[in-house]
Structure prediction request, 85 residues.
Amino acid sequence: MPSVEIYTTPYCGFCVAAKRLLSRKGVTFSEVDLSRTPDRRPEMLRRAGGRHTVPQIFVGDTHVGGCDELYALDRAGKLDALLKG
Prediction:
């Protein structure tokens, strides 16, 4: 299973929803809280192609995007395959 990384901030409802979906699927992920580590924001911007909103979700080297994209992949039946690698 590829590693899953999610950039978040506190009180972000979309971040909570994305983490909830991943947890429901039994996915272990690492969370980068940008409020605690603001020096990692440029890293997120670079990896996400300039997207500055949170969450930004990565599965392995694949940039999924945000919460809406994560749920769209799940609805399309493509998320499980991506998570399996």
